[in-house]
Amino acid sequence: MAKDWRIIAYEKKYALSTVSFWRESKETAIGQKEIHSMTEHIYFLNHMLTKQFQVDLAVLNETPIGMIAYNEGEINQLYVHLAHQGLGIGGALLEHAKARSCGRLKLYTFDVNKKAQQFYEGKGFKKIAYSSDNEEGLPAIEYEWIRCLSRGSEG
């Protein structure tokens, strides 16, 4: 299957469709309804998340199907529309963030989200800590990825 989607910088015109698939994906992954209203979630995306992180989207025909919020050392959010999971979109968004990182990224995922754990571990992330310090009150796992230097690049 040819790649017919692309990665773009987030724009506010995509807020409703982005938050819609984000909520559905998260709720499915953790088995818990989103604790914030749609209005609060859109406000968070447009006025808080975008101030602290670069937010990029995977879009198919101008419809968002994946999103990632990251900076040089952290991935804060990574979600793919349920209908588009398993097609390499999450991996491409992750590689996109890795390429723009300082060579080390940290992130959290919920302990109940075994699919995400398998995904991140398959992409080179290692478990480094456990926490329950989140709004959902769920146990979470902190992961870290560190870019490996090849022997040829050591100096």
TrEMBL record:
Domain N-acetyltransferase per the UniProt entry, residue ranges: 19-148
Gene Ontology MF, one: acyltransferase activity, transferring groups other than amino-acyl groups
Keywords: Transferase
InterPro entries cross-referenced by the UniProt entry: Acyl_CoA_acyltransferase (IPR016181), GNAT_dom (IPR000182)
CDD domains: NAT_SF
TM annotation in the entry: none
Pfam family of the protein (one): Acetyltransf_10
Protein name (database record): GNAT family N-acetyltransferase
UniProt source species: Cytobacillus kochii
